[in-house]
Amino acid sequence: MSARLAFALPEELEAREPAEVRGLTRDAVRMMVAYRSRLELAHSTFAQLPDFLDAGDLVVVNTSGTLPAAVDAMAEDGTRLVVHLSTHLGGDRWVVEPRQWDGHTTERWIGAPPPRSLVIGEGACMELSEPHLGSTRLWVARLLVPQPVLTWLAVNGRPIRYGYVQGAWPVAAYQNVYATEPGSAEMPSAGRPFTPEVITRLVAKGVGVTPLVLHTGVASLEADEVPYPERVVVPDVTAERVNAARAGGHRVIAIGTTVVRALESAVGDDGAARPFDGWTDLVITPERGVRVVDGLLTGWHEPEASHLMMLEAIAGREALERSYEASLAEGYLWHEFGDVHLLLP
Q: For residue 259, which of 287, 286, 238, 228 has the smallest C-alpha distance?
């Protein structure tokens, strides 16, 4: 397996607030376009996405909505925590990430196991049972709340926010315009720049737009971790449209790494996409490659992040290295409120 891309990310390139707060519309963030076949780069804005796609191409979006998945908690001894709800396992069982809280910032739990019994609000509690799949930071827990979970979270939860973000933004700031089914711990952020106007221009040009669902878990992976299993639904119509686009010689463009993981999990042995409803533990590497995805719109990923293996599988190592070198030189912004990267064949 090839080494992951390593580089130094300057703090000034971390997007600390939504584009709207910086005086931009969502679709005005910068977009670098990288062509694998001819190793060329183009600098544009996301509003110009339709200019880089052709009639017959198919754009696949993840319509999972972002949950207000961070909740305050207190142990029996008075220890204060923040708990990130990562993945719903069914019923009252969740995968969660307990984090230490000092009144100002949250840090990953280090050392001894976290408290097992937590109060998370009036009439609500959480019981941690065991580590999730051998993880040192994720736990399986029972979430006992007096209302339907989504109703309770709307009042008691808030979006997961990491230290580089300045300000506590509402969940609407972490929601894609096409989100329809709440379930993601963190925003599938490649789709954040979409606006109704961009979607309308794509459709008017003859570019298809079709949905699937992958509910994302927490992304704060340790260096040696790869993504954990996530819930996926690829509907019949999306599988059919993917196969039709490829049969017609057109490109399938995934909006976000979540879409790549979902679509590639739905590929049969014959290389055709099929409807899929279940869990995926697929990790895409350059050695594994991709089978139905031709291009990808994504954000800028941190040094040595596991997602960079997927980007290399799609773009190739040389195009990826050129893109990241240029992104640093040109001052592209990172993270969920930052700029985007369009990888094309």
A: 238
Q: Provide the H-helix boundaries in the chain.
A: 149-156, 196-205, 236-247, 257-265, 307-315, 317-330
Residue with tokens 């463009």: 253
Measured on CA atoms in the order 23, 307, 312, 317, is the torsion positive or negative?
A: positive
Domain boundaries, the chain: 11-66+170-344, 70-156
Q: What residues of the chain score a pLDDT lower than 50?
A: 1
Which run of H or E residues covers position 130? strand 124-131
What's residue 224's pLDDT? Answer: 60
Predicted pLDDT at 108: 73
What six digits make up the tokens of 202?
Answer: 């794509």
pTM exceeding the 0.70 threshold for the entire prediction: yes
* 8 Å CB contact between 144 and 126: yes
Q: Encoding tokens for residue 146?
A: 């007096």
pLDDT value for 181? 96
* Domain covering 11-66+170-344, topology: QueA-like (3.40.1780)
First to last CA, the chain: 22
Residue 46 phi, psi dihedral angles, 5° rounding: -65, -30
Query: Ramachandran region of residue 134, left (φ > 0), alpha (ψ -120 to 50) or beta?
Result: left
pLDDT of residue 223: 54
Dihedral of CA atoms 247, 249, 250, 256 in degrees, nearest 10, equals 70
